[in-house]
Task: structure prediction
Amino acid sequence: MSEILSQVLAALRERRSVRDFTAEPVTDEELNSLLEVAAYTPTARNTQAWHVTVVRGLDKIASLNEAVKKANQKPGYERYREVTKTASYSINFQKAPVFLIVGVDREKSVAPPEDGALVLGYLMLGAHALGLGSCWINQLGVITDEPEFREYLTSLGFPPSHRIIGCLALGHRAKLPPVPERRRDHHNLVS
Ligand SMILES: Cc1cc2nc3c(=O)[nH]c(=O)nc-3n(C[C@H](O)[C@H](O)[C@H](O)COP(=O)(O)O)c2cc1C
Result:
Protein backbone atom coordinates (compact mmCIF):
# COMPACT_ATOMS: atom_id res chain seq x y z
CA MET A 1 0.00 0.00 0.00
CA SER A 2 1.29 3.48 -0.81
CA GLU A 3 2.46 5.74 2.01
CA ILE A 4 -0.30 8.23 1.27
CA LEU A 5 -3.06 5.61 1.48
CA SER A 6 -1.64 4.33 4.78
CA GLN A 7 -1.85 7.90 6.06
CA VAL A 8 -5.49 8.13 4.97
CA LEU A 9 -6.30 4.94 6.91
CA ALA A 10 -4.42 6.26 9.93
CA ALA A 11 -6.43 9.50 9.77
CA LEU A 12 -9.68 7.51 9.70
CA ARG A 13 -8.62 5.70 12.87
CA GLU A 14 -7.20 8.73 14.67
CA ARG A 15 -9.96 11.33 14.19
CA ARG A 16 -11.69 12.11 17.47
CA SER A 17 -14.53 14.34 18.63
CA VAL A 18 -12.65 17.30 20.03
CA ARG A 19 -14.23 19.42 22.77
CA ASP A 20 -11.21 21.37 23.97
CA PHE A 21 -9.71 24.02 21.72
CA THR A 22 -6.84 26.52 21.77
CA ALA A 23 -7.48 30.23 21.15
CA GLU A 24 -5.67 30.07 17.80
CA PRO A 25 -7.95 31.37 15.06
CA VAL A 26 -8.84 29.25 12.05
CA THR A 27 -7.42 30.99 8.98
CA ASP A 28 -9.17 31.61 5.67
CA GLU A 29 -6.71 29.20 4.08
CA GLU A 30 -7.61 26.42 6.53
CA LEU A 31 -11.33 27.03 6.03
CA ASN A 32 -10.98 27.06 2.26
CA SER A 33 -8.98 23.80 2.31
CA LEU A 34 -11.65 22.20 4.47
CA LEU A 35 -14.53 23.32 2.27
CA GLU A 36 -12.63 22.14 -0.80
CA VAL A 37 -12.41 18.64 0.72
CA ALA A 38 -16.14 18.71 1.50
CA ALA A 39 -16.87 19.50 -2.16
CA TYR A 40 -15.90 15.89 -2.92
CA THR A 41 -18.67 14.44 -0.74
CA PRO A 42 -20.83 12.04 -2.75
CA THR A 43 -24.56 12.80 -2.77
CA ALA A 44 -27.56 10.78 -3.90
CA ARG A 45 -28.05 11.37 -7.64
CA ASN A 46 -25.17 13.83 -7.37
CA THR A 47 -27.51 16.69 -6.44
CA GLN A 48 -24.79 18.35 -4.29
CA ALA A 49 -27.70 20.23 -2.72
CA TRP A 50 -26.00 21.13 0.54
CA HIS A 51 -24.78 24.31 2.14
CA VAL A 52 -22.48 25.23 5.00
CA THR A 53 -22.95 28.48 6.92
CA VAL A 54 -19.59 29.25 8.52
CA VAL A 55 -19.94 31.27 11.71
CA ARG A 56 -16.56 32.62 12.78
CA GLY A 57 -15.78 34.54 15.96
CA LEU A 58 -16.69 33.94 19.61
CA ASP A 59 -19.15 36.86 19.77
CA LYS A 60 -21.15 35.67 16.75
CA ILE A 61 -21.16 32.09 18.06
CA ALA A 62 -22.29 33.32 21.49
CA SER A 63 -25.32 35.05 19.88
CA LEU A 64 -26.16 31.87 17.99
CA ASN A 65 -25.81 29.91 21.24
CA GLU A 66 -28.42 32.14 22.90
CA ALA A 67 -30.82 31.63 19.98
CA VAL A 68 -30.32 27.84 20.18
CA LYS A 69 -30.98 27.78 23.93
CA LYS A 70 -34.10 29.93 23.58
CA ALA A 71 -35.62 27.86 20.75
CA ASN A 72 -35.01 24.59 22.58
CA GLN A 73 -37.05 25.81 25.55
CA LYS A 74 -40.19 26.38 23.48
CA PRO A 75 -43.16 23.99 23.51
CA GLY A 76 -42.77 21.40 20.76
CA TYR A 77 -38.99 21.49 20.85
CA GLU A 78 -38.39 19.60 24.08
CA ARG A 79 -35.85 17.08 22.84
CA TYR A 80 -32.86 19.04 24.08
CA ARG A 81 -34.60 21.17 26.68
CA GLU A 82 -32.68 19.75 29.62
CA VAL A 83 -29.27 19.77 27.96
CA THR A 84 -29.60 23.31 26.58
CA LYS A 85 -31.13 25.01 29.58
CA THR A 86 -28.05 24.95 31.82
CA ALA A 87 -26.09 28.21 32.09
CA SER A 88 -22.92 26.46 30.98
CA TYR A 89 -24.38 24.92 27.81
CA SER A 90 -22.36 26.08 24.84
CA ILE A 91 -22.51 24.95 21.22
CA ASN A 92 -18.77 25.61 20.89
CA PHE A 93 -17.63 24.44 24.34
CA GLN A 94 -17.04 28.18 25.12
CA LYS A 95 -13.93 28.15 22.95
CA ALA A 96 -14.10 26.78 19.40
CA PRO A 97 -13.62 29.84 17.15
CA VAL A 98 -15.69 28.48 14.26
CA PHE A 99 -19.13 26.90 14.09
CA LEU A 100 -20.38 25.19 10.92
CA ILE A 101 -24.07 24.76 10.20
CA VAL A 102 -24.63 22.07 7.57
CA GLY A 103 -27.91 22.18 5.71
CA VAL A 104 -29.43 20.20 2.86
CA ASP A 105 -32.03 21.46 0.39
CA ARG A 106 -35.33 19.70 1.09
CA GLU A 107 -36.57 20.40 -2.43
CA LYS A 108 -33.48 19.35 -4.38
CA SER A 109 -31.84 16.56 -2.39
CA VAL A 110 -33.36 13.08 -2.77
CA ALA A 111 -31.76 11.93 0.51
CA PRO A 112 -31.26 14.92 2.83
CA PRO A 113 -30.17 13.15 6.05
CA GLU A 114 -27.79 10.83 4.22
CA ASP A 115 -26.26 13.58 2.07
CA GLY A 116 -25.85 15.90 5.04
CA ALA A 117 -24.36 13.28 7.35
CA LEU A 118 -21.78 12.42 4.74
CA VAL A 119 -20.85 16.09 4.29
CA LEU A 120 -20.35 16.25 8.05
CA GLY A 121 -18.20 13.11 7.90
CA TYR A 122 -15.99 14.61 5.19
CA LEU A 123 -15.71 17.84 7.18
CA MET A 124 -14.72 16.00 10.38
CA LEU A 125 -12.10 13.90 8.62
CA GLY A 126 -10.85 16.85 6.58
CA ALA A 127 -10.51 18.91 9.76
CA HIS A 128 -8.47 16.17 11.36
CA ALA A 129 -6.18 15.90 8.32
CA LEU A 130 -5.62 19.67 8.45
CA GLY A 131 -4.55 19.47 12.10
CA LEU A 132 -7.85 20.91 13.35
CA GLY A 133 -10.40 19.40 15.71
CA SER A 134 -14.17 19.21 15.42
CA CYS A 135 -17.20 17.89 17.22
CA TRP A 136 -20.68 17.25 15.81
CA ILE A 137 -23.31 19.32 17.62
CA ASN A 138 -26.82 17.95 17.21
CA GLN A 139 -29.07 20.41 19.00
CA LEU A 140 -29.79 22.70 16.04
CA GLY A 141 -31.41 20.13 13.75
CA VAL A 142 -34.64 19.80 15.69
CA ILE A 143 -35.20 23.57 15.86
CA THR A 144 -34.61 24.21 12.13
CA ASP A 145 -38.26 25.16 11.62
CA GLU A 146 -38.96 27.00 14.87
CA PRO A 147 -40.07 30.35 13.35
CA GLU A 148 -37.92 32.75 15.42
CA PHE A 149 -34.87 30.54 15.07
CA ARG A 150 -35.47 30.19 11.32
CA GLU A 151 -35.53 33.98 11.03
CA TYR A 152 -32.19 34.09 12.83
CA LEU A 153 -30.76 31.43 10.52
CA THR A 154 -31.93 33.40 7.49
CA SER A 155 -30.16 36.49 8.86
CA LEU A 156 -26.95 34.41 8.85
CA GLY A 157 -27.43 33.53 5.18
CA PHE A 158 -28.63 29.97 5.75
CA PRO A 159 -30.82 29.12 2.71
CA PRO A 160 -34.62 29.07 3.38
CA SER A 161 -35.21 25.76 1.56
CA HIS A 162 -32.58 23.93 3.62
CA ARG A 163 -32.95 21.99 6.83
CA ILE A 164 -30.11 21.63 9.30
CA ILE A 165 -28.68 18.11 9.36
CA GLY A 166 -25.92 18.77 11.88
CA CYS A 167 -23.31 21.25 12.98
CA LEU A 168 -19.64 21.24 13.89
CA ALA A 169 -17.69 23.12 16.51
CA LEU A 170 -14.30 23.65 14.85
CA GLY A 171 -10.91 24.92 15.91
CA HIS A 172 -7.34 24.01 16.74
CA ARG A 173 -7.46 21.08 19.11
CA ALA A 174 -5.93 21.49 22.56
CA LYS A 175 -5.38 17.75 22.66
CA LEU A 176 -6.57 14.64 20.88
CA PRO A 177 -8.83 12.66 23.24
CA PRO A 178 -8.26 8.94 23.75
CA VAL A 179 -10.15 6.52 21.51
CA PRO A 180 -13.48 5.48 23.01
CA GLU A 181 -13.91 1.70 23.13
CA ARG A 182 -14.74 0.39 19.65
CA ARG A 183 -17.03 -2.57 18.95
CA ARG A 184 -15.77 -5.22 16.58
CA ASP A 185 -19.03 -7.11 16.08
CA HIS A 186 -20.72 -4.85 13.54
CA HIS A 187 -20.64 -7.17 10.59
CA ASN A 188 -21.52 -10.56 9.24
CA LEU A 189 -20.18 -12.16 6.12
CA VAL A 190 -22.25 -14.02 3.58
CA SER A 191 -20.18 -15.84 0.97
C1 LIG B 1 -24.98 12.18 14.80
C2 LIG B 1 -24.03 12.60 15.89
C3 LIG B 1 -24.44 13.51 16.84
C4 LIG B 1 -23.56 13.93 17.85
N1 LIG B 1 -23.95 14.92 18.71
C5 LIG B 1 -23.08 15.38 19.62
C6 LIG B 1 -23.42 16.49 20.44
O1 LIG B 1 -24.50 17.07 20.30
N2 LIG B 1 -22.54 16.91 21.36
C7 LIG B 1 -21.31 16.30 21.52
O2 LIG B 1 -20.53 16.71 22.37
N3 LIG B 1 -20.94 15.25 20.74
C8 LIG B 1 -21.78 14.80 19.79
N4 LIG B 1 -21.41 13.77 18.95
C9 LIG B 1 -20.07 13.15 19.09
C10 LIG B 1 -20.15 11.71 19.64
O3 LIG B 1 -20.40 11.75 21.02
C11 LIG B 1 -18.82 10.99 19.32
O4 LIG B 1 -18.68 10.87 17.92
C12 LIG B 1 -18.75 9.60 19.95
O5 LIG B 1 -18.74 9.69 21.35
C13 LIG B 1 -17.51 8.82 19.51
O6 LIG B 1 -16.31 9.55 19.77
P1 LIG B 1 -15.29 9.91 18.60
O7 LIG B 1 -16.00 10.84 17.62
O8 LIG B 1 -14.13 10.59 19.27
O9 LIG B 1 -14.89 8.66 17.89
C14 LIG B 1 -22.25 13.36 17.94
C15 LIG B 1 -21.84 12.44 16.96
C16 LIG B 1 -22.70 12.07 15.95
C17 LIG B 1 -22.21 11.11 14.88
Observations:
- The domain at 21-172 is CATH 3.40.109.10 (NADH Oxidase).
- The chain has one domain: 21-172.
